[in-house]
Design brief:
By secondary structure, the chain is α/β, with parallel strands linked by helices. Helix content is 44%, strand content 12%. The relative contact order is 0.12. It has one domain: Divalent-metal-dependent TIM barrel enzymes (TIM Barrel, Alpha-Beta Barrel). The mean pLDDT is 98. The strands form two sheets. It has an eight-stranded parallel β-sheet with strand order 3-2-1-10-9-8-6-4. It has a two-stranded antiparallel sheet with strand order 5-7. The chain binds D-glucose and magnesium ion. D-glucose binds next to strand 4.
Length: 344
């Protein structure tokens, strides 16, 4: 089937199986091994955290960071792999224990902004203007710990500092309602697009939808896609799945709710996602039980499911659907969708 979609994942999606209750179940692999796997699977691009691109970034000077980013760019070019985005990892360092841009400590907020600028530098060298902001710790464990109104101002200040630092950089906010925080400040796409309007350059602030994050917020991921794309603001995408309101599961795309996955692909198709060069990224993890020899299956399977669902979207009987809608016969429409997904 002919299609325009390009696919992507990050090195963290080849994870080793650790969870809060137990250690890794697969051996750590080098970045080069991960890049080789990506290439072998025929994916087009890789997502990067700033420290995936430049390990131990906090211990390195600006010029060292640039030097290592240039070396990485050469390796990526050699393999014909694109860097889709770079994201500052603002949830590991001691300076980000109480949040990054919204930390109550001014020095720690400065650390977060400085590190975000290094991230923009890396993106520039890797050939991408897309900076993904998953605002992991921008929220609270107890609401009284921070002033919510002030936190919005601090987020805007941080975004403004990044927009001013580089006139080309585009910020793509990846909302998530919880985990690691009890409540996050930007839990949905609506919040992301609203705060964009308060920045110095709203045109350069957009969003990234992750299916699991929408589900955790009790929102339909397909509706989030339609909403973001109505504003022309969906610049990246983390497809995966999630079984109810639990810890963030990052299951393979379509693993739990095939119909919802179908609706997401349908929303992407009707809005022309990918036609401006956006990538379909899978933010999925292998199950902890996965053996080394099956390590890449969750990524291959997610793309396979996506493409099978694309066939289902393109062969969906739109005419029949339209006439059932005109007759308000949603009972029959419901069954038509189910039987279409089951196959005749
Ligand atoms: C976690 C997020 C995370 C981000 C990634 C890019 O819940 O989905 O995987 O997507 O760190 O910033
Ligand atoms: Mg994600």
């Amino acid at each position: 089937m002919k299609h325009h979609y390009k696919f992507c994942f990050g090195p963290w999606n080849i994870s080793e199986g650790q969870d809060p209750y137990g250690p890794t179940t697969r051996p750590a692999q080098t970045f080069d091994w991960k890049l080789a796997q990506l290439k072998k699977l025929g994916f087009d691009a890789m997502m990067f955290h700033d420290d995936d691109a430049v390990p131990d970034i906090d211990s390195k000077s600006e010029s060292q960071i640039r030097k290592e980013a240039k070396e990485l760019k050469k390796r990526l070019d050699g393999e014909g792999i694109v860097a889709e985005m770079v994201a500052p990892r603002l949830w590991f360092a001691p300076q980000t224990i109480d949040g990054a841009y919204t930390s109550n400590d001014k020095r720690h907020r400065q650390y977060a902004i400085d590190r975000s600028k290094r991230c923009i530098d890396i993106g520039k060298i890797l050939g991408t203007d897309l900076i993904v902001l998953w605002l992991a710790r921008e929220g609270t464990y107890i609401r009284e710990a921070k002033d919510g109104r002030r936190s919005v101002e601090l987020l805007v200040e941080a975004f403004d500092a990044m927009l001013a630092y580089d006139k080309k950089a585009r910020l793509s906010i990846e909302p998530k309602p919880n985990e690691p925080m009890d409540h996050a400040y930007l839990p949905t796409i609506g919040h992301a697009l609203a705060i964009a309007q308060l920045t110095r350059d709203p045109k350069r602030v957009g969003c990234l939808i992750e299916s699991a994050h929408a589900i955790l917020a009790g929102i339909d991921p397909a509706d989030e896609i339609d909403f973001a794309m109505s504003f022309g603001k969906l610049w990246s995408l983390h497809l995966n799945d999630q079984n109810g309101l639990k810890y963030d599961q990052d299951r393979p795309f379509g693993c739990t709710n095939l119909r919802s996955a179908f609706d997401q692909v349908r929303a992407l198709e009707r809005n022309g996602y990918g036609k401006n060069g956006e990538y379909v990224c899978f933010d999925v993890h292998p199950f902890r039980t996965t053996k080394v020899e099956h390590w890449m299956a969750h990524l291959d399977n997610s793309r396979r499911t996506f493409l099978r669902l694309l066939e289902k979207v393109r062969s969906y009987d739109e005419k029949q659907a339209k006439s059932l809608i005109a007759n308000r016969d949603y009972q029959a429409l419901d069954q038509m969708v189910i039987e279409h997904l089951l196959g005749k």
